[in-house]
Each structure stands twice: as structure tokens, then as C-alpha cells.
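Cross-posting from the modeling subforum.

Setting up a comparison between two proteins and wanted a second pair of eyes on the formatting. Protein 1 (sequence, then C-alpha cells):
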Amino acid sequence: MITRQKYQDYINVLKEELIPAMGCTEPIAIAYAGAIAREHLGCLPERVEIEVSGNIIKNVKSVIVPNTGGLRGIEVAAAAGIVVGDAAKELKVISEVSTEAVSAIHKFLETTPITVNFSDSKKIFDIMITVYGNGHSAYVRICEFHTNVVEIREDAKYVLQKDVALEDSLDFTDRGFMNVQEIIEFADTARIEDVKDLLDHQIECNVNISEEGLTGDYGANIGKVLLKTYGTDDVKIRAKAKAAAGSDARMNGCEMPVVINSGSGNQGITASIPVIEYAKELGVSDEKRYRALLVSNLITIHLKSGIGRLSAYCGAVSAGCASGAGIAYLYGGGVDEVSHTIVNSLAITSGIICDGAKAPCAAKIATAIDAGILGYHMYKEGQQFYGGDGIVSKGVENTIKNVGQLAKEGMATTDQEILKIMTKTQSN
């Protein structure tokens, strides 16, 4: 039986993670820092200095920043936030931008010196922006996650300062209490009125951007390719295609919001769209759909908690695995079915690397969802992977811990090599 405190903890985690964002969240975090810095400087800067950790460079390098006229890069994200950003909107900081404002961003980029440097910070997620103008400066640091502002300075005066070595500086509910068995119990017993608004917003935003991806022309159009190649009759194909289409649009400048999960719009799309599509196919009640979305979202968060916000381990793997768990729940599965789905799917796709946010993410999402669905159907057919099969250990929580160790510790060097390759590779 889940205690009242744990029940509230699960609600709090959902409220902290299922938030709206427009654009890939790493460049948007840079824009957010830029908007805050501009506010504290009090004028348009004459010069900008930016320091970021390697994973920020990795996730900003190749993705289009929305409302910039198709531009990419750290300098672009910072300029957008500085020139037209509204810091009060947080991860929707550049969601309302006029044509004239886009021109102003371009002019700022042409006339204002902006330098970008690698940070020697030990943090995986670290953004530092200093802006200069009218003989003054303002400094903003965002660390650990996308809206966690830990330092603001006006000249030498501290306006805000948190100790980033302390866990409570994160202003987040600790995730250590989560486990698969309790997630299923929470999903079974949650009061729908406590989660309805959150999930309705996720459904609305993520379905809308998925539909835009299928009707527009974005990136490599993975969603369209899947439907054209395999048809629309199979729910599995539609689930993969519609999720991929949402990523197609999001990675390639679509100016529509998504509800993210674990700091990622791609993970938010992957955790939700397949479950929504299967719920429609199976004709389940709205209540069952909500409860399945709780399973998928919370399993994603649980998996990502051991991995970290950014890693060389592709986040779509966790969300695709979790969508398989949500689908298993839609079919009437409980702890046993969900646990086996998770283990089976993690065994299949845990080798997929994250080489930054970009168009190919959509294809990785389709692959991860396929593994999640296969993981469930393996269980239905009496098939499974066993402890000792590679990184699989007996018990779902042990396998989840193994994945966290693989991603956070084992792939640290891989992350460095990916960044080296990305920073020297030119587009074909």
C-alpha cells in the first residue's frame, strides 16, 4: 500500500517532469539563461561570453532553434533569448516571436561579438552566460537541469547563489523512492483528478506536434517514411511513425510546444504517443488511457533517474521501453507483465548512443518503441531474457540499476569520444 507521502511524491515528480517546452530543451535552456542575463543587465548587450559543458555542445550543435528563421547553434540560442526572450516563460522563453523580432535576432548575431568556450566544470549539464553593456555585466549559471538557475550576478554583486554540491540545490523531489511495483500500484489507484490536467496537456501538445510532423516537411521525415513503407493498418507501425513524426518536427524547428519528460521533448513524445495510439486502437476508456500514461511516464523517469539528464546513452531507449510498459498495461498487464517488458526491451536497445539532438533522433525513437513493443510480445509468447544474459540481472530493479551504471559510468569515455567526433565532423 502506497503511503500518503509516497502518493504525493509521485504527484510531485509528475508535476516537475511533465512541463511544456518549445524547441529542443538544451538550446532553449541557453535561451532562458540569455533572457535572464539581459533582464539583469538592463540593456541589449554589447558583448556576450558563453561557457558550456560538453553535453550542451553535443545537444545544441545540430538542432534548429525555433523562431530564428532556421538557424542552429549555441550563439543563435543565446541571441534569441537575449534579444526577444521572456524569462518568465522558462522553457517556452522564445515561444512568441514576431517576424520583426526574428530580424532583430539576425542583426544582433551580425553585430555583437559572441564567444563560446568549453567549460572545465565537472557537471554534465552546465551553462554560463555573461553579458556586457553600458559599463556593466550580468552573469547567469544554469546547472544540472534546464531551469535550475544556481547563480546570478550583477557586476560583482550576487543576486542568487546556490551551492551546486548540495542535493537540495536542485529543488527537485528525490527520485530514489521509485520502483516498478509501486509505479503500477500508483497507476492503479491514483485519483484521476490529481493527474488529469497534466496528462490532458501532454496528450494535446504531443499529438498536435506529431500530426504536424506527418503533414509538414521536417528533417528526414521518418514518420512519413514508416507509413509509406509499411502502411497504416498495423497499430505498431502507426505508434512508431507518429512518435517519430513528432521528433521530426521538433528537431527541425517546429514552433509548437511539447510536454517533456525527464528534461527531453523527444522522451516526452516517445513516452506518450505510442500509448495514446494503442489506447485508441484498443478502444479503452479515458481512465485506462490516463493510467497507462502514468505507467509510461513514471517508468521513463525511473529509468532516467539512474542515468542522469544527459549521457552517451540515448534517452529514447528509456522512453521507448517505458512506452512498451504502458502498452502492456493497456492490455491488462500488471507488475509481472510490465517488469518483463522492461527487462526484455532494455536488453535489446541499451547499446544505442546519444550523439546529440538532431534529425536522426526520430529514427532512434522508432527503434526504441519497436523494442518496447517486442519486449511485451515476447512476454505474451512465454519468451524472455534471463539474468546473466549480458547486462540483464534477475529482477527488474537490478537490471535498471545495471543500465544506470552502464550509462553514467561505463559510457563516460564514450561521451567524450562522441563529442570529439562531432566537433571535428563537417556535414556532408
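Protein 2 (same layout):
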Amino acid sequence: MNPLRLVVVTAGLSQPSSTRLLADRLAEATRHELAGHGREVELHVVELRDLAVDIAHNLLTGFPAGKLREAVDLVTDADGLIAVTPIFSASYSGLFKSFFDVLDQQALNGKPVLAAATGGTARHSLALEHALRPLFAYLHAVVVPTAVFAASEDWGSGATVGSEELAHRIDRAAAELATLLAPRPGTEPSGQQDAEAELIPFAQQLAALQPR
């Protein structure tokens, strides 16, 4: 069985950044969950800060070049995606949005995506629902139910309430993504077979409704 290709897109601007830190924790948690499903992971990280100039050129020319072309291919060919952005002015960063503008409209069709974000305060957490989730829904991705937001206070040292809650959200979102990427053996095929076995022709259903 081939390893699952998991791509992490992170739009942090500083180095190091809390956005990259959150991305790494989500990737590791997902890898751990997939190991429980008996699946290996081939992990790739796309740092958008390193592609900013190429992204700007692509928006002007319409042609991704060099490392941007490689990043686009990685995301397009991925089995699953973890996308993490800092929140500026109550929405995703311009760099984050510009990268997804570069992708082909069909690149994320049916692809499982875990959306996450970082921000200075918890007030920015709503951006996950009013900005990120609609973006990926428009691109026809399958977004996991749990989106993960990390505010500055969530990075507390030790077993603080914020850090414990963040760890719980990370684990829950990773488990949801792993379930989409690697359903338990036999569950999906057998479900499909049962659905096909129970399919009754429409004419037969109409006949059954006629009075005897």
C-alpha cells in the first residue's frame, strides 16, 4: 500500500512563526492518527513566504514558475491537505489567498482539507467559518468539521487551560482528517456494495405503490 501524500500549506510570515508551529503539530497529530489506521505518510510542507515573489509574478503572467510550479503540483496531487494561515483584518492573509488563486479551479475537487489559523486574540477565530471554510467549499474541497484556531494565549507553557484546549482541538481535527484519508478497511467498499444491492428500479417502486 503506497504512503498517503499529505501536504501542509503554511502562510506564516515570520521565522519562526506560530503559524508554522501549529501546522507542524497538526501534521504530526495526523501522522499519528494515520499510523493507527495502518497507513504511512509522505509529508510535504509548502512555506508560502518563500514563494511570495513567484506568486506575484504568476498573478501577472498566468504561469507558475520554478518552486511555485512544484508547490502547485504537490497540492494538486496530494491525498490530503492541511492549510494554515495567520488572520489579518478578520480574514486569511493575502499571501494565503493568492496561492489558492493560482491553483486550477479543479485542483481541490473532493480533497480532504483541514483548515487552521493563528491570530493575536480569540476574537479572530470566527474567520475560520466566515472566510476559510467558504473558500475551500468554493474550491469543492471536503473540509473536516473541526477547524483549529490558535490565539497567542493558547501557546502557554505547561498544562494551562489554553494549551490543553488547543491540544484537544488538534487531536480531534487530525482524527477527522485521518478518517477521511484512510477509512477502516472494508467499511467503504462494503457500504457501497450494500447500497448497490438494495437499489430497486424506479419502475418497480412505482408498481409497488399502485393499489392492489
